[in-house]
Amino acid sequence: MPRVTANSIELEYDTHGDPANPPLLLVMGLGAQMTLWPIELVQGLARRGFHVIRYDNRDIGLSHKFEGAKAPGMVRQMLLARLGFRSRVPYTLSDMAADGMGLLDALGIERAHVVGASMGGMIAQLMAVEHGHRLHSLTSIFSTTGNRKLPQADRKAIEPLTTPPPSMEEADLVAHGMRVSTAIGSPGYRPDPEAQRQRVIENVRRSVYPQGLQRQLAAIIHDGDRTERLKRVKAPTLVLHGEDDPLVKVEGGRATAAAISGAKLKTFPGWGHDLPLELVDTIADAIAEHARAAHPA
After folding, report:
1. Which helix (H) or strand (E) holds 259?
2. pLDDT digits (tens, 9 = 90+) for 62-101
3. What integer pLDDT is reported at residue 79 of this predicted model?
4. Gap between the Cα atoms of 91 and 221, Å rounded
5. What average pLDDT does the segment 264-269 reach?
6. Average pLDDT score over the chain
7. Residues of 69-102 as b/e, b for ≥16 C-beta within 10 angstroms?
């Protein structure tokens, strides 16, 4: 896969579809490599007429690692945030939004449709707030505003995600990955266990970097509540969310749509915090329809 210098760091990325088609940037979530975008979804968007670009966020996958940068402890950081104080963090979600814009710059792309999932949705929201002239449209998938008064993640969903694997041996890493996918996955769309295991193995063999997740999580906590900032979003916005998401509750999606003027909200029963193959066509259709309406080719 190619790599470029963007926002003064190196980002790993790939592209799918005809470069002459409207560009569509995919932004993945917390501790997740770009390969967590199912290739079936990526290719589905390309077939629907888009030049699809996905990339590894900083500190994950094959992109730049912030080795040695210390993230504040999560409990202490959250306590300080409740008291109105911010801890010093290695980087912010705004820095991560600037990374995506830097990738577009490196590829010679002036404007794009932007689709973000989970933390990637938060980053995409900030792209729309801070770099709004670069977005044709915004799609925020199972994300939230950061308002801590909203219902929080189920403990059984957040614990596996934020607990490091017991070792860096492949068997432990695969078992850990399976626990995470089971804990946050869609109750209405359970994957074939062997197929899911193979996907986890492929991602483990591509890259494992638990330290990056801690710094990304610190950036999420540091960013706080985006509700007021989201009122400045001008890009046509679509919010997609599962009604059975145990990690980012559906109320987060509803709050996101409510904060952005004119935003459209679509929720789906049985959908959790993953991208099940059974919903790939539904998700691709929704994104494509929204993007075409926002900026007809």
Report:
1. helix 250-259
2. 999 999 999 888 777 777 677 777 888 999 999 999 999 9
3. 76
4. 11
5. 98
6. 95
7. eebbeeeebeeebeeeeebebbbbbbbbbbbbbb
In DSSP terms, 10 is beta-bridged to 5
Ramachandran class of 177: left when φ > 0, alpha when ψ lies in -120 to 50, beta otherwise: alpha
The letter for the amino acid at 84 is G
Residue labelled with tokens 């070792």: 167
Looking up tokens 């989201």, which residue turns up? 230
Any idea what DSSP says for residue 168? S
Q: What is the DSSP string of 169-189?
A: SHHHHHHHHHHHHHHHS-TTS
Q: Which residues contact 112 (CB under 8 A, 6 or more apart)?
A: 22, 23, 24, 25, 53, 104, 134, 135, 136
**Would you tell me how many other CB atoms lie within 10 Å of the CB of residue 110?**
9
Place of tokens 């990339």: 55
Question: Can you tell me which residue has the tokens 């596996």?
Answer: 160
Beginning with the edge strand found earlier in the chain, give each strand of the sheet holding 9-16 in spatial order.
3-6, 9-16, 51-55, 23-27, 112-117, 135-141, 237-242, 264-268
What the block records as the tokens of 95 is 């820095």
Once rounded to an integer, what is the mean pLDDT over residues 139-164?
94
